Amino acid sequence: MSTVTTAENIEVEEQRSEGGLVTKNLTLWEGVAMIVGTNIGAGVLAIPYASRNAGFFPLLLWLIVIGILTTITMLYVAETTLRTRRHHQLSGLAARYVGKIGAWLIFISVCANSTGALIAYMAGSGRLINELFGIPNQIGSILFAIPAVGILYIGLKAIGKGEKFISMAMVALIVILSVSTFFNDNTDIMFLTEAHWSYMIPIIYLVVFSYSAQYIVPEIARGLAHTPKLLSKAIIIGMICTFILLSTVAFSVISLAGIDNVDEIATITWGRFLGHWAAIVANLFALCAMMTSYWGLGGSYFTNIFDKFNLGSETNVTRRTIVLAIVAIPPFILAYRELVSFGRALEFAGAVGGVILAIVPLLMLRAARKTGDIIPEWQCNKLITSLPVKTIIVLLYTFTALYAITELLYNTNMLTQGMDDLLIQMNVFVPKTGA
User: Which residue ranges run through the membrane (predicted)?
Assistant: First the structure.
């Protein structure tokens, strides 16, 4: 058990601000908005297309199952954070409780997921702004980067407020599109009943990584250090809101077009069936989603660098500027150097990193309950920390990582075989005959 009793918790809480990461108070709804904003990125627009072979109900099943399991792992991180005197990010918590290897695995996972996502947001924002205003892609990305990077520089409180207001705008835009879909002549609820359960496995790949807010839990814990009981509430409410938004987008697009006519990006489907105005509204929603997710993942990446390399106070202007440049500049350059293979490698690393985010929190929580500094006011209940639940989490996320690896190897083998066939047809490669 922890060596600090509940009677000492108030004194310990006052010491939390020691170290490099400072405390800026958040409200409950700012914490909720940070979770929703981080989760709802560009991936929400790809979910309907990803489920085109399986249908809506297999997708809905995974959204429920993965949503519950991800929420549980986030609550593990929450209790671990509340049991620790100093403010840490995931890599710092891992270093404290599972050692250097665990810390590096978490940090690499954060880097891969965040960098891959920020590359997508830089490129995607440029294309969206080009479609909305006719501005060249690179100029559009720069215009997107100004508020995105500016809010990151200001810090945690600005991120919380920005996430809250833009998340509210996202909800309003989705309501507009969903209501319009409901009254459209093309909408047919029977489209939702089309299901091919044998194709449900590939959907898990995207759904697992549409719930990506594990990274943001220590940030929210830092902002709610003055009211730690609100942390678990913010996580649960935020994940429920995420589920509602993800399922609503899929429900709307599939009921409008049917699984055979869903476009690769949901905004295209809305525009094709509802009209040009819907395309504009959908693109604004996508832009908001990219902005909030940029703040969530970028902010987590930023503070993880400070925490991992013990850079001291994050209020130091010089260090803050350098770290911000490390976070923001490479994704912009990579987005416009057409390094597709590098981006795909990052996506793969992020996918495999998902299993790290599932398993390491289990180990951290177990260690924190033995050697943590504080007995917190809120703790995970026995049900979600039971052996069966932990076993399901480990097995499911490990399966997801193995599936990603298998898919990569299969695609690589198919590409190699295709190149060999092409070279043979061109008489570039002639198989050797006998001696």
Answer: 26-50, 56-77, 97-123, 135-156, 165-183, 195-213, 234-257, 277-297, 317-336, 348-367, 387-405
Model confidence over 40-72: pLDDT tens digits?
876 787 888 888 889 999 999 999 999 999 999
CATH code: domain of residue 110: 1.20.1740.10
Residue numbers of the domain that contains 289:
15-425
Q: Is residue 111 part of a domain?
A: yes
The DSSP secondary-structure symbol of 266 reads H
Phi, then psi, of 55 in degrees rounded to 5 = 105, 180
Residue 27 belongs to a domain: yes
SS (H, E, C) 297-340: HHHHHHHHHHHHCCCCCCCCHHHHHHHHHHHHHHHHHHHCCCCH
Q: How many domains does the chain have?
A: 1
Q: What is the predicted pLDDT for the residue at 9? A: 47
Cβ contact 76:364 at 8 Å: yes
**Do 177 and 274 meet the contact criterion of CB atoms below 8 Å apart?**
yes
Under a CB-based contact definition with an 8 Å cutoff, are residues 113 and 350 in contact? Answer: yes
**Residue 7 pLDDT:** 40
Q: pLDDT, tens digit, for every residue of 265-288?
A: 788 889 889 999 999 999 999 899
- The answer to whether residue 1 is domain-embedded is no
The residue type of 218 is P
Average pLDDT on 159-179 reads 90
Question: With the CA atoms of 240, 241, 242 and 244 taken in that order, what torsion angle do they form, in degrees rounded to the nearest 10?
Answer: 90
298-310 average pLDDT score: 88
